[in-house]
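Below is how a single chain appears once it has passed through the pipeline. First comes the sequence as given, then the structure the pipeline wrote out for it. We keep one example in the README because the format questions we get most often are answered faster by looking than by reading.
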Amino acid sequence: MSDDTRPTNDRHSEKQLGAVILAAGKGTRMNSDLPKVLHHVAGRPIVAWVIDACRAAGCHKIAVVVGFGAEHVREAVAADDVVFSVQDKQLGTGHATLCAQEHFKDDRGDVLVLAGDGPLIRAHTIDRMIERHRAKQAAATLATSVIPDPTTYGRIVRDANGRFDAIVEEKNCTDEQKRLHEVYPSYACFDCQTLFTLLSELQPDDVSGEYYVTNLPMRLKELGQTVELVDGVPPEDVLSINTPEHLAEVDAILRNRLSTQDRTPTQEIAP
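Resulting structure:
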């Protein structure tokens, strides 16, 4: 990989970086018995692309949280740097992330929390997040994107100074918040120990009864901790896969990237 395509990982070496990839869902709208993250895009399982982005960004450990079809997911992405945790009950992203705590008890660095069904994420985006996160000594850093149709996405609410105020899930949005187009595409970085401490104290959502990792940045702000936003993620990159139609759309985008960059599916795609 040439230096002119993306930054090197050397600047991350002073502090460990891990990742938790949430991949426990069945994906009921896929109309398939295959775990959603094992459907193929550009010839590879969806989740494999997320794992590759984490590797390219310098993650020393990648914890994949599995649930439905757990053994199949394990077999598909087994590697020396990949560990697994099981989420037996679908109780939300916060609960899923907490399931991975066993693998990070001794870590004192930072950890990414990413969705396993978002294969368009780029290592370059992760690099930008880590740079901001460490430069500002933040407790959490979130990537954001402005998209034409924000339906189903958590909205980013900023304060009067343009800084982070809240992430509001679609089902909890007011009419005014639903008109916001800046969304949270499930790209987050946290101080590792802070993440798991707050997850253990997390309360269920009043509406859904689930535990949301998106509630943590608001809690950090209440505690006086720094929460940073990294905007400008291209709308194309935040497409997640929930239906066969989404699968076909993302497959076409990835194949076009590979063709444009003249790279094989196992290589990093330049930003």
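The chain has one domain: 16-261.

See the next section for the split statistics.
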